[in-house]
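Sharing in case it's useful to others searching the archive later.

Someone asked me privately for the predicted structure of dolichyl-phosphate-mannose--protein mannosyltransferase, so I'm posting the question and my answer publicly. Question first, with the sequence:
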Amino acid sequence: MVSEDISAALALLSKETGIAVLPICIVYYIFKSSQRSYGHKRERDVNQNDYNYGKEEEERCNSNLAYYFWLYGPLIAPVITLIALLWFRIRMLHGSLPYFTSQDNPASFEEAFLTRFLTFSYLIAFNLQLLLMPNNLSYDWQMGSIPLCCERRTVFVGICFLVFPFIPASNLFVTVGFVVAERVLYVSRSGLESVPANAKIHYNYANLQKDLGNIEKAIHHYRTALSLWPTHESSHNNLGTLLLNADEAEAERHFKEALRINPYHPRPYFNLANLYSKKGLSTKAINLLKRSIELDPNFAEPYSSLASLYAEKGFNEDANILHLKALEIEPKNADLVNNYGAFLQKTGNSEEAIKQYVKALQIQPEHTIALSNLQQITKFNNLLDSNHKPLRNNS
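And my answer, the predicted structure tokens:
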């Protein structure tokens, strides 16, 4: 039982559905207890005239509590564990239900009852198909992988594919020479099939192309993802970042659209704030960065950007705190280390700035901005020639 409870807890930490193992165990123990109760009653009836058995029975069952503990004791541990794990999961969600969007489960957000009913009915058949032959998997089948059943024409054609091929094999009109015509099922099954038009495939491929530096390809696939799923906020956000240099107006539109779709996404706030900062709208940028930090306190980049804006306004102490907070979250981020070095350089702390630039280059040797900043500050302060070279010569 201990291993059972530990396994259930580990399963829950891996995936929420892992907790389902405990209700299954509880049902199993209920049936097992019923079986033990029936066997005990039958044994008592058979041996009711046996004096020795009667004394043992009397001693074993002289307390109803002991009897019921013997009968239902195995249920106690999984029930307590189930309650404890549910409480832990609810605490992790801060007492609220998980937040989902329409791209996670389109049918659940569809207002038309008939569309929801037809789609959910189709999903039952689709799940059975995957259960019997999981040859076509697509990570949760989100973002339009299974289109909603909202057109009468689509439903009618599907019914025709199901019904008409089956009529000759149904024995309703003519006698046929088989019990089940398997070949007919291949045609009927086409009435239950859907060609995936998965926006996330294009989104993931666009992310890959962006990382490889193929910006035009990335933009093309982000646009394709949005044509398949116009309310995919991450595609809007990422497309906006790629359009910042080419078309600021369109980039701003995509950031705002991402926030309209999902006002709890911290990255569009951050990207829109950087755009406004570039335009000189520092007050708007500060408010957006604060909102981004509020939504995700572990998102390091907004702290650094907010620190830069505070430094421009002369709030150096607050800026220093924000830089240190960003580095506390991501100490191995070369961009954040370089930004802190630039802040220290502007505030006159050249020696500490050099240390930060060197640290950034240790993390990422090809960081050209940190290298350029280090060269400029050492040349400006004449530290490289007057201090470092004599030390090397003396050694």
